[in-house]
Write a structure and sequence with these properties.
With 233 residues, this protein is of the alpha/beta class. The chain has a single domain, classed as 3-Layer(aba) Sandwich (Rossmann fold). It has eight helices and seven strands. Strands 1, 2, 3, 4, 5, 6 and 7 form a seven-stranded mixed beta sheet that branches. Strand 5, helix 3 and strand 6 form a beta-alpha-beta unit.
Length: 233
């Protein structure tokens, strides 16, 4: 794809539906991925941006559907993401890193957000966390004081992002500008490429997706949800 000093960098962007994944990718790359408005997810499959250059590196971003997608089950979403990541890994392409988007405008990190992040963490695995950037979005929807207070809570509480930050992940802000998006990407483009746990499990260990750590976490979350629903009934 490139020559000379341009080295291709592939990074995946994940997060809940409506967390700003497509907006971040569109800003960073200048390519028009459809951005989600309203409740229904517009990302029904894995998509990639057009290649673009940041600090002399050719970057391609992967847009993935969120686990709370309105048109597909969480199991289907995980299968789709796993199939794409496994295929790229089999072809010798390794990720420079993974960006996880989170809305700073959310009043609190509810059960769905925590579930999504747990699945994401199992999908990545502990050894890949140094290649993970948690990107907070929607800063224009909160005052600076409220945003910073929420950011501090997310970073300092064990049930939120503190455990992954202690293991090398970073938390950065995206204010909606191209400059901020490129600043975030500069943290990844010089990183040593990583192999995600789900790639290791499926490609190297030949595990079916049903036996991956991410799928176990998903099944556990769905069983808990079913149990609460039964109690409510």
């Amino acid at each position: 794809m490139s020559s000379g000093k341009h080295t291709e960098t592939l990074s995946s962007v994940m997060g809940a539906t409506g967390s700003g994944k497509s907006t971040f990718i569109s800003k960073a790359s200048g390519s028009g991925l459809p951005a989600g408005h309203g409740l229904e997810s517009c990302i029904n499959e894995v998509q990639t941006s057009r290649p673009f250059v940041v600090s002399g590196r050719v970057v391609t971003l992967i847009d993935t559907p969120g686990f709370d997608d309105t048109t597909r089950s969480d199991t289907d979403i995980l299968s789709m993401i796993a199939a794409y990541l496994s295929k790229t890994y089999e072809h010798g392409t390794r990720l420079a890193g993974v960006i996880y988007m989170h809305r700073i405008s959310d009043f609190r990190m509810g059960g769905t957000s925590r579930r999504n992040f747990k699945i994401f963490r199992e999908l990545c695995g502990e050894t890949s966390l140094k290649n993970v950037i948690i990107v907070t979005s929607m800063w224009s929807e909160v005052t600076r004081d409220i945003g910073e207070a929420r950011e501090s809570e997310l970073a300092s509480m064990g049930k939120f992002f503190k455990p992954v930050l202690k293991k090398g992940a970073r938390m950065l802000r995206h204010d909606g500008t191209v400059e901020a998006a490129h600043t975030i990407l500069r943290y990844l483009i010089d990183s040593y490429p990583t192999t995600l746990r789900i790639q290791q499990e499926i490609v190297n260990e030949h595990e079916p997706i049903e036996q991956t750590a991410a799928n176990y976490e998903l099944r556990h979350a769905l069983d808990e949800q079913a149990g609460r629903h039964k109690d409510e009934m």
